[in-house]
Amino acid sequence: MSDRFLEGQGALVTGSTSGIGLGIAKAFALAGAKVMLNGFGKPEEIAAARAEIGAIMGGGDAPYSAADMSKPASIRDMIADAEKTLGSLDILVNNAGIQFVSPVQDFPDEKWDAIIAINMSSNFHAIKAALPAMLARKRGRIINVASAHGLVASPFKSAYVAAKHGVVGLTKTVAIEIAESPVTCNAICPGFVRTPLAEAQVKPLAEKFGISEEEALKEKLLVHQPNKRWVEVEDVAEMALYLCRPQAGSVNGSALSIDGGWVAN
């Protein structure tokens, strides 16, 4: 979208140093928002992300928080920092997440705890900290990046599926609580999105099953996506942009699928 309808608004996107989060941050900056990034990664990758978003916003590095999404106090400090640095925090995108795959009987306790903390509880702590100022200003958008796994399950992903289902439930509860205000809370539920991390899974699958990478992509990785195509980062970012528009004011408490038909099965 070419119009700068987010001019003057402040946005924080967690887990935005790469992948979906970075794509959303870029879209928001192009729409005129002041964007703060957050996430882990190699220092040079974080620097590149800050420079890219900063250039879109008019020069200099984009603001950045190194807050640990597994620590409530760190999250609260990040929200306060965003309010101060951006002038106001009008858009909160909870995108940070990690993954681990294992049969439930072998699932390490520490992995379960980390995934629940980062993928679900961080959303609660960020919303709790950001919501009072949004309600006071009578303006705000909360967007939780859930997953198709927030609506359906797959084997060996017990913590991830539980966390993402929790995110969808949290989204609905917050939406009902704030329904009479101009603030909204929604979840985006993508299927497999084309990111470097996801694309890196294709070659090992091809080698494991002795098939081509194209077959591995369609028959193994995207087995649940009827269209057999990646969801593009830009598609998710466009949905996030739409939710920030004034015309989306009545979209509240929704879990919006963008998954090539996955949950239609």
From TrEMBL:
Keyword Phosphoprotein among record annotations = no
Query: What EC number(s) is this enzyme filed under?
Result: 1.1.1.30
Q: Which UniProt keywords apply?
A: Oxidoreductase
Identify the enzyme class.
oxidoreductase
The alphabetized list of GO BP terms reads: monocarboxylic acid metabolic process
Q: Which PROSITE patterns match?
A: ADH_SHORT
For molecular function, the Gene Ontology terms on record are:
3-hydroxybutyrate dehydrogenase activity
Report the InterPro entries cross-referenced here: 3-OHbutyrate_DH (IPR011294), NAD(P)-bd_dom_sf (IPR036291), Sc_DH/Rdtase_CS (IPR020904), SDR (IPR050259), SDR_fam (IPR002347)
Pfam families listed in its UniProt record: adh_short
Is Oxidoreductase included in the keywords of this UniProt record? yes
Family per record: Belongs to the short-chain dehydrogenases/reductases (SDR) family.
Name of the protein in its database record: 3-hydroxybutyrate dehydrogenase
Taxonomic source organism: Rhodovarius crocodyli
